[in-house]
Design a protein that fits this description.
Elements: E1 3-5, E2 26-29, E3 37-43, H1 49-62, E4 67-71, H2 77-87, E5 92-94, H3 111-119, E6 123-126, H4 138-149, E7 152-156, H5 164-173, E8 177-180, H6 191-198, E9 202-203, H7 207-213, H8 229-237, E10 242-243, H9 244-250, H10 255-267, E11 271-274, E12 277-280
Parallel strand pairs: 3-4, 3-7, 4-5, 5-6, 7-8, 8-9
Antiparallel strand pairs: 1-2, 2-6, 10-12, 11-12
Helix pairs in contact: 1-2, 1-7, 4-5
Amino acid sequence: MQIRELPYNEIPQKLKDISQPAKRLFVCGEIHKNENKNLVIVGSRKHSSYGKQVLCDIIAGLVGYPINIISGLALGIDTLAHEQALKHGMTTISFPGSGLANSSLHPQTNIRLAEKIVESGGCLFSEFTPDFKATQYSFPQRNRLMAAYSDAVLIIEAEEKSGTLITARLAMEYNRDLLVVPGSIYSETSRGTNYLINQGATPVLSAKDVLLALGFDVKTKNERNDISDEEHIILSILREPMSRDEIIRECDNPPEEVNSLLMIMELRGLITEDAGYFRKT
């Protein structure tokens, strides 16, 4: 990947309008000078299946809107955010906590992902020299640039003492919208996010909440009128993700009829199955 240092006057203004501005900036790829909103998505490196599903659903709901997905290339939620943006043809931008040379890029397992980001028309930013290897302090230092570059920061799962909370604090300091996905009170990866909501962050329950926070006019989808009575029953049962056996136990119909109905509903896009659990789309 070709790395170049930006002249100071080409460094994005947002990165210079903070208390600790970027004085140098290296880039790989194309810098987009579009009117897209910048949504930073960060979270736990040890995300749960719930966090993964929420992230996939939210990004799918943002498709078609002028939004850049920004993250830090780290394992976990960061990696998923970049991958889902690429899957849906959205522009994605990364701020690694290291230099941009392949020999120093962190984490090394995401070198190919970084290349895909650049190949798809996105870019990588770093204020560290290309051969700089990540250190304990370089990640918080990087976080301030992500927060500054954003229009809103979305946090999906964070432990109580997570570095993600540093990005959250900086987002509030820079007057960016702080959006947080709530989680179970019993989940370690939701303690940080639930704390942020308690402190006044905006809870996010769907992609619509993100779009509204970014200032988009969201039109409500028309209700489908082609759903049968049997399908309505299944949808009413699926108040939360359920296994096939749980759905069959809730229904009065024979198991073979329920299995057939589930297959038809999945083909019609009414429900989806992931890791053995069905949920409404």
